[in-house]
C-alpha cells in the first residue's frame, strides 16, 4: 500500500485550542510540550494527523476529559474509551458492537450522549442521541456545538467502526444539521461520500450489509490501537480495505495456538472457502502465503527481544521442536536464528526499538 501523509486542517486545531483556552488550559505551554509552533497553525493550511494526535492526547489528559473536542455533554474520565473497547471487542458482529457501545454510554460516568443505530431496508444509520438519564437539553447542545465538533464526532465514529471490522466502511452519505460551511469540500474529502447539510439530524449512512461483518480486532491489536489513540480516529490511517488485511487481522499475532483453518477464516468472514481463495488470488496471494508472512513478521518481532532465547522464540511461535523453527526461520529470512542475531539487521532492529522506547 502506498504510504501517504495524513493531514488535518489547521482550522480544526485552532478550534481545539479555543475550547482548551475556555477551560483554562495554557495553550502556549501545551503546544510547546508536543513540539508544535503556534505560528505553524496560523500560517499552514494543514498539519500532520500524527502531530495533531499527540496534541489531542495531551489535551485529553490535561482536561481529564477523554471525549474532549467531541459532542458529549459532559466530562468523560480518562480510561473510559479503553473500557468501552474492551466491552465490545468480542462482539460477534458490528451491529452488536454498536448496540453494546450505546449501552455502555448509558452507564458511563460523564457521558450524556450515545451512538444510535437504526437499520431500515438496505441501509443503516448511525447518529447520536441523549442517554436515558441525560441531564442536558440535547437539541440545544447540538445547536450550540461548533460544526467542527460535530464533524469530528461523526468522523471518529466512522473511523472507529471501520477499524473494528478491518475495512473502511464506504458511506452512502453524511448528514449534518447545520448549513453548508465554507470548507464543505473538506467534509466530502473526509467522509469520501455525498455530504448533506440542513438535515434533521447528524448521521452516517451506509449499506446495512456492514452490520453483519465480524470484528477482526483482538485484545492484542486493541492494545496497540490504544497506545496511539486518538491518532487513528482523527484520520483513517490504514484505509486498506483488502481481504488480505482482514485475514491478517483474524490470524493475529499469537502463534503459540493453532492457526485458524481456511474454512474457519471463511466462515468468520461469511464467505465460502472457494470464494475466499478466489478473492485472495485476485489480490495475488493465498491463505498459505498470508500465514507465512504473519509468521515471519511475528518471528522477527520476537527475535528482536534480547531477553528471549531462540528456544523461547520457537515456543512462542508454536514449534514443539526448535530445529523445525530453525528451518522455517531460514526459509523466511535466508538466515538461521543464530546468524540473524549476529547480523547488522538485528543490531539495527535493536537500535530502532531503543529509539522508539525513548520517544514513547
**What percentage of the residues does DSSP assign to strands (E)?**
5-15%
Q: What is the CA–CA distance across the termini?
A: 26 Å
Order of helices and strands: EHHHEHHHEEHHEHEEHHHHHHHHHH
Poorly predicted runs are 353-360
* Residue share in helix: 40-55%
By DSSP (H or I, 4+ residues per run), the number of helices equals 19
Radius of gyration: 23 Å
Mean pLDDT: 84
State the total count of DSSP E strands: 7
Number of domains: 3
SS class: alpha+beta
Strand order of the largest sheet: 3-4-7-5-6
- What profile does the largest beta sheet have? 5 strands, mixed
Which of globular, elongated, flat, extended, rod-shaped describes the shape?
globular
Summary, kept brief:
By secondary structure, the chain is an alpha+beta fold.
3D structure, described in words:
This protein folds into 3 domains: 1-63, no CATH class; 77-241, no CATH class; 242-359, Orthogonal Bundle (Arc Repressor Mutant, subunit A), CATH 1.10.10.60. With 360 residues, the chain is α+β, with helices and mostly antiparallel strands. The two termini are 26 Å apart. Residues 353-360 have low confidence and may be disordered. It has 19 helices and 7 strands. The chain has helices at residues 10-22, 27-33, 38-43, 49-63, 80-88, 94-107, 138-144, 147-165, 184-191, 219-228, 231-234, 243-251, 262-268, 273-282, 287-303, 310-316, 322-333, 337-341, 344-359, and strands spanning 7-9, 46-48, 113-120, 123-130, 171-175, 194-196, 203-207. The longest helix has 19 residues, at 147-165. The strands form 2 sheets. Strands 3-4-7-5-6 form a 5-stranded mixed beta sheet. The chain has a two-stranded antiparallel ribbon with strand order 1-2. Helices cover 54% and strands 10% of the residues. Helix 5 (80-88) packs antiparallel against helix 6 (94-107) and helix 12 packs across helix 15 (287-303). GO terms for molecular function: DNA-binding transcription factor activity; transcription cis-regulatory region binding. Pfam families: Arabinose_bd, HTH_18.
